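Entry 14. Structure prediction run on the chain below.
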Amino acid sequence: MTIKIFMILLFLLVIFSLGLYSRKKTQTVDDFVVGSRSIGPWMSAFSFGTAYFSAVLIIGFAGKVGWGYGLSALWIALGNAVLGTFLAWKILAPRTRELTARMNVVTMPSFLEARYDSINMKVFSSMIIFIFFVPYSASVFMGLSYLFEQVFAIPYIIALLIMTVMAGFYLILGGYMAVALVDFVQGLVMIAGVIMMIYFVQGNELVGGFARAYDSLKAMDPAFIMPGSATAWVGLISVIILTSFGTWGLPQMVQKFYGIKSAEAIPRATIVSTVFAVLITGGAYYVGALSHLFFDRLPLLDGKPSPDLIMPNIIATSLPELVAVLIMILVLSASMSTLSSLVLVSSSSVTIDLLKGALFPELSEKATMLLMRILCLLFIALSLFIALKPPAVILTLMALSWGTVAGAFLGPYLFGLFWPKTTRSGAWAGMITGLLVSLGGYYIISFSPSFVKPEIMALFSNWGMPFFSSLAMLVPLMVIPVVSSITAEYSLDHVHNIFEGKEALLREQ
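Output returned:
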């Protein structure tokens, strides 16, 4: 017990110290939101990875997907590493760093306003972030309950209070710089925890190494090695698209590209971030894929089968006690990293884009900083309150958050970066289409409307929200170029200012 307490206190002391240190480096709005665009490749890479992979992945999602797909879940890990991380850094990071610095914007809504010359788009996108990110933050809290209560016999409320106090402390003091510093340390904890988790689970007598596990799962059901039907493949591909391509449009992920110090740092950050993704996702999904070797049926929670208990039970039965404590710190780390990124994006968007940008344009730098810190505290407190007593509407927003936000932003952001002929109408069409597809899909799955044929409804129910969320990201990519091709283009001056800079325009004149 003494060693356990020492490990936890040491971890918290490091977080506390980094928060105090980063306070000295946070004096302006740019410091608070993007670290004055001075974050190095290693810190940027770890900050991206820890924001990407939260406790929801390690504790809940990996077990649920592993139970359903077996070793096929490793395709999701591959998608997260290649599409969600490597290609995101390779394709998006250089252009994002260049354009956001040139336009002097630090948030997704500000980028959309500058790119499409539309304050209404900025206000609308700020509202999307606020509505869906606060319950998303609460879901990060809720993912902890099973681990702490079922495995470590630690009251859920204690874990939540530790996480909220520490995340709030370093975020309010140091902003993005504190987030990046803490994420680096937490990323190291996550790497150590996942490596040890793989080692001990592999050595468990029920597993006996990869080759034996592969043969055992194949003997149980060949579908645990490779999906056996087109329906199963559609479901798996939907999850891959949702969890991989979604990062391209999520504001808390894109923001990591704003803060990196130079284009020269991006290649190294790309490699580090990709290796991190391979290790974390590969480890989590691999352990989840072995769940059928540990259980004949799903573990019960309050008398009902619950996939959320798969990973906590595997951890409790396979890992030595001190290693399990390291996993607990790993989960706290992943949760605090994701939470701080979400809260920072929410508070900065509401403050910079909605309050200062639309309602109070004369707000001073000092007042803006104070307001962002207050909103950080408010959003963390609100997330905690929701996690303790989640009303039904909040649970709905949690289920919708990832796909809806990515569906709304990915198309306008991606085309805004690379295609000068994207029009304001095209961007609006893409944003609205993404929202409608995601919300419409949730309505169909939840209420089974009569206009959907029963056989089609059965497929939709089997695929779930990942199918509609992936459509919400893909459909706008077809809508935007079509609408842009038939609507009014921007002036040559506007296009040059965005894509080539004012210097290029002056040379032409």
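The chain has a mean pLDDT of 83.
Filed with the rest of this week's runs.
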